[in-house]
Structure formats: structure tokens, C-alpha cells
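Re: your question about Antitoxin ParD

S., sorry for the slow reply, the queue was backed up all week. Below is exactly what I fed in.
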Amino acid sequence: MSMHRKTITLTEQQNGWVKAQIESGHFGNDSEYIRDLIRRDQQAKQRLAILRQALVEGESSGNPWIYRLLRRLAVSGSRRLISA
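Result:
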């Protein structure tokens, strides 16, 4: 896999957060942390897309209880993604 170098600008608070994550031993360096954030974002968006597709299928199935359940799950998932 080829790697590409990116330059980003962070606030003092954001920079402090990244440093704290590295110092806690969760990540070896800034790049590992940023790559982990990107992977998590990709996974969250994929899960949300699956939920939305299930919502469309449930809505078109004509079974209202499935539609309501999937809608609640999609809204709940969106809220979790926003607060994460």
C-alpha cells in the first residue's frame, strides 16, 4: 500500500488530545491515531449506509412495525455517530 503525506492544522486543544492519546500508549505516533480515526469514520459511515438501506427496504415492504423499528435504529445510530 502506498502512503501519502498530508499536512494538517490543529488547534492547541486538538494537538493536546492527540499527544495524550499517544502518551497513553494507545498509538505509537500521530499518523497511527489519524489513520485509526479515518478507519472508524469509514466503518461508522458503512454501518449507517447499511441501516439506511434496511430502512428503505423496510419502508417498501409495507410492514409498518419493521419500518418504525429501523427508523428508530437509524436515528439512534446517527445520534451516536454525531456524539462520538
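Residues 12-83 form one domain. The chain has one domain: 12-83.

Happy to talk it through on Thursday.
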